[in-house]
Amino acid sequence: MATELQNLVFVWTSVVAALVYCRHVTKLVAAGPRRLLLFLPVILLFLLLPLRLTTISLGGLTAFFVAWLSNFKLLLLACGKGPLAPPLSLPLFVAVASLPIKIGPSTGSAAAKNGGGDGLKSPANYVTKCLFVAALFPLYQRSDYVHKKVMMMAYSIHMYIGLEVALAAVGAAAGRLIGAAVEPQFDEPYLSTSLQDFWGRRWNLMVTSILRPSVYDPVRSASGRLVGRRWAPLPAMLATFAVSALMHELIFYYIGRKEPAWVVTWFFLLHGVAVAAEVAAKKVLRGTRWQLPAEASRLLTVGFVVVTGFWLFLPPLLRCDAVAKARREIIAVLEFGKGLWSILRFISFEVVSGP
C-alpha cells in the first residue's frame, strides 16, 4: 500500500505539472490544430499514468479522472470549447481539468435541486447508502452459499453507491478548497422512467456533460446534413455510446490489466440502439394518446438496465478480479484505521499520564 501511495503522489504531481503546461499553451496558442498538436504529449501521458496504480479505489478513480475526463476536456479546449475554454485562474484550471467538478452559475440550479449549496445531496442520503452497503458485507462472507444472481445484484448496488459516494467526496473536497460548485454525478438512477432519462439525466452526469459537446453535438451536426434534423440525434446517440464503450473498456483494462473481450462494448452498443429506438418511438408516437404509466416505465427501464448489466457489464468487471481487489482494499483501509486508532490512543494516554 505504501508503494501505491508513492505512485499516487507521483501520478498526481505529473498531472498538475502537465496541466500547468497546458494552461500556458492555451494562453500562447490559439485554438486549432497547432494547440491540439501541443496537447498530444499530455494526452498520451494521461493515458499512461494510470498504469502506475493497481488499486480500484485509487487507480480506478485516477483512470476515470485523468485518462477519460481530463483528456476529453483537453480535446475540447484544443478546439476552444468545453469547461476549460473560459478564462480561469491557474488553481481553477487545474482543478476543473483534473477532477469531476463544474464551476459557473449553471450549477446553482443543481445545488437547489439537491437541497445543498454545494450541489450535493444531504449527508443523511449518503450515510444511509453507506449503511446499506455495510449491510451487504455479511452476504459477501457467505457468497459460496448465496445464489449467483443475488450476489450480482449486491455487487451492482455496491458499485453504484461506492462510485456515487467516492465521486461526491472528491468533488465536495475540491469544491470547498477552490470555492467552486460541484457537478452532481448521480440523480437517483433507480427512479428513471426511460433509458434516455437514465443515461442523459441521472447516471454519471459528468460523463454526459463531456460526451455531449465532444461526440454527440458534432455527430448530430454532421448527421443533420445527411438524414435531416429530425433524425440526426439517432446516429449521434449511437456514436456517443460507442465512444463510451471504448472508454469503459480502457477503464476495465486499467483495473484488471487483462486483454479486453469487448463484452462491455456490446453492452453500450446495445443500450445505444435501445435509446435510439426509444427516441424514434417517441417521435413517431408524439401527439398520440398512447403512453405508459410512470410506474410501468420505471419498472421496464430499471429491469432492462439490470438484466443487460448482469449479462454484459458485470461479467467483464468480475473477470478483472474487481471483487477480490475491493475486499483486499477494504481490509487494508480497516487495518490502517485500527493502527491509527491505536497510535492515537497511545499518544493520548501518554499525554494524560504525563512525565
From TrEMBL:
Is Lipoprotein included in the keywords of this UniProt record?
no
Identify the keywords attached in UniProt to this record, alphabetized: Acyltransferase, Lipid metabolism, Membrane, Transferase, Transmembrane, Transmembrane helix
Phosphoprotein among keywords? no
* GO CC annotation terms, alphabetical: membrane
Q: Which GO terms describe its biological process?
A: lipid metabolic process
Q: Which GO terms describe its molecular function?
A: acyltransferase activity
UniProt cross-references to InterPro entries, sorted A to Z: Wax_synthase (IPR044851), Wax_synthase_dom (IPR032805), Wax_synthase_Magnoliopsida (IPR017088)
Going by the entry's taxonomy, the superkingdom of the source organism is recorded as: Eukaryota
Localization, UniProt:
Membrane
Q: Which family does it belong to?
A: Belongs to the wax synthase family.
Record protein name field? Wax synthase domain-containing protein
